[in-house]
Amino acid sequence: MKFLLALTALAALPLSSLCALENWSGRSVYVAYPGKSSAKKPPKNPQTILLLTDIFGHLSPPAQALANKISKSGNFLVVMPDLFNGDPIPFPPPATGLDPAWIAQHTEPLVDPRITEVVNNINKKYKPRSIGGSGYCFGGKYVFRALAKGEVSVIFSAHPGLLSLEEIQAGAGKGPIQFALADEDPAFGTAARIDAEAVLRNSSMPWTSTVYDGPGAGIAHGFAVRPTVPGEKYSEWALNKATDDAVSWFKLWLN
Ligand SMILES: *[C@@H]1O[C@H](CO)[C@@H](O)[C@H](O)[C@H]1NC(C)=O
Ligand SMILES: *[C@@H]1O[C@H](CO)[C@@H](O)[C@H](O)[C@H]1NC(C)=O
């Protein structure tokens, strides 16, 4: 517990040489570097993870802790861009729901090009050996869209939000897919999961889907970024398990 708190606190402190906030063509991007590499000493042809965040964005401490952990445990270059042009939702979100004006600023026709621009920059800067996509909630939809376009070759999608069956169909068969889902998630519940799995079962690529559930409130939407109940053992286990599963999926399938 103390260790976890320390990690979270670390992510919010001034950045070490292992991670940096950078400005890529006017876009703020959080980069976690593998091994002894850094912005000044870039890794050569790294296996790269494009981390697509939830609505709280790339500056939120849990997202940065996640990027650091994925980079460290997989020896990956992790690139986590600002998907919202400086306009993330502050945590916790308003109980009244998201403002329609905010939603209108972050729809597919606006967000897709932001991601394509970042992928182009990754390719230019690092000539990566391969790129995987790790997406959470809002980002859990966009990793499917990136997979369908061949921008990434392997994905992990945790508790996706606004992910349609058409988007799953477009990504299915394009690369290995892993889901990490909360059973009673209003954003992606049991019916959505069963439909998604039918599509994946039909595809020619490896896939896996892990569901987290439990008595009472169990494990809730968002669990793979923030523990459902901080400090509670099952919530902390689910967060760590989902992160470890993402890393081992990328180690298994990325070239
Ligand atoms: C990136 O740098 C440009 C040019 O110096 C600056 O105008 C812009 O505000 C910066 N953007 C971010 C997100 O830091
Ligand atoms: C599975 O594939 C068959 C043949 O391509 C297709 O007709 C069917 O609709 C697919 N089912 C799902 C659930 O995608």
TrEMBL record:
What superkingdom heads the lineage?
Eukaryota
Q: Which SUPFAM superfamilies match?
A: alpha/beta-Hydrolases (SSF53474)
Q: Where is the signal peptide?
A: 1-19
Report the residue ranges that make up the Dienelactone hydrolase domain in this protein: 43-251
What Pfam families does UniProt report for this protein, alphabetically? DLH
Which terms in the Gene Ontology molecular function aspect does this entry carry? hydrolase activity
* The entry's keywords: Signal
Q: Which InterPro entries does this UniProt record tie to the protein?
A: AB_hydrolase_fold (IPR029058), Dienelactn_hydro (IPR002925)
What is this protein's record name?
Dienelactone hydrolase domain-containing protein
Q: What is the lineage of its organism?
A: Eukaryota, Fungi, Dikarya, Ascomycota, Pezizomycotina
